[in-house]
Amino acid sequence: MKILLITALWLSTLTNLQAQKMQKPSNIQEVIQLIKNQSISSLQALVKSQNYDLSGLDLDKIKSILWQKYVQEQTQNPARQREYTKRSISFGNKTMRYTATTKGRKPAKGYPLYIALHGGGGAPARLNDSQWRAMQSYYLRCVQNGIYVAPRGVTNTWNLHFVAESYPLYDRLIENMVLFGGVDPNRVYLLGYSAGGDGVYQVVPRMPDRWAAANMSAGHHNNISPLNLGQVPFLLQVGELDNAYQRNKATVGFAQKLKRLQQKYPSQFKHQVFVHWGKRHSSVADCPRNRKSVVIANPYEWQQNPSRKKPGRATTNAIAWLSQYTRQPLPNHLVWHRNTVASSRSQNGALFYWLKADNKPLENEQVEVTIDRIKNLIEVKKWRQDITIYLRPAMVDFKRPIYLTKDGYSEKRTLLPNLQTMIETLLQRGDPDFIFYALLTLKKKN
């Protein structure tokens, strides 16, 4: 019975590929000419009925040609050109305006991008506009090299940085800055102060695969789960006297959750917390230049007994802290809290690094998957619904059988790198490091 169930599962994962004619190109030049002679949309339609087996070919070169074609088309797109030149992007009935300032020379791999979220929140538009203007220069003074972007919250409500429409707008903003601004997609950072800090708490766990690191200052977590932050270094800063909504204690409490997760997964959940000595809500020194700030030496001890606090000194410059990190788009282990998701990012399913699932998670649903390239092994430790695993040669060796372990079963299978998966994943995020070459869809039996 077990063998029959496994066979049925594997057959179901390959249904789409088997339903197609899988053409084998005679050489890589045939594939390159196909890409060059067709638009991306034409290729997308073509591979739905006539896919191409790319095994044995230079996959990275094909990816490079495909990305060049995409960049050429998108930078000539009038709608995208207007978004970039007018500094205004719309989704649904919401519009995100933003300012952008470039400092320094462009590095070989592209500029780092710092996106800074302003304070304010549930207030008149004039107040939020004032906060937006302040954020246009607030962290900019600490940027030595890079592009500094300050978006205007899309509403005037308390959650102005993380209403449903915000998430696809952040995606579009980042994609445009990569296409037109020469940004390195592996060096995109998010910062926020006060209501902007609230935004950092909500945005980063819901779309963590976009960020290299994040800084949260003087915000409140509003009980967001930290489980999705395994790959995003997270800096938390708050004033010792920021008592409103217990932001000070809530900040340290969130850091404690990250600390426990880091103990469970030692190579993940990098974080640091600074409680600024004697500072109130609006006076956190998170962008000092050439000096250290006075902080509470042991914030965890302070949280338990404030009278036992001791002073310490630390470099609390948020830009400097973030800049030491680069996004790793292909981690070998993922823990995904499925309920912490921005379903508005895509109508075709939720994306999390190299995983995909539908937009209807079960209550408290988690997915945990580990990939061991040496063993060519994919181990699915937790899953409750269908999931798709996207793969590249840096993750598994397509030339050898790939072993899958899940639900007490083990099986091996050979996957074919193919053009359809490359085009599908290119269009999902417009990110060269999330172009994958093959996929494996696992169907959960009820």
Automatic annotation (TrEMBL):
List GO molecular-function terms, semicolon-separated: hydrolase activity
List the SUPFAM superfamilies: alpha/beta-Hydrolases
Is the Signal keyword given for this protein? Answer: yes
Q: Which InterPro entries match?
A: AB_hydrolase_fold, Plant_Biomass_Hydrol_Est
In the record, which residues are listed under signal peptide?
Answer: 1-19
| Keyword Signal among UniProt keywords | yes
**Which controlled-vocabulary keywords does the entry list?**
Hydrolase, Signal
Protein name, entry field: Carboxylic ester hydrolase
Species this chain originates from? Microscilla marina ATCC 23134
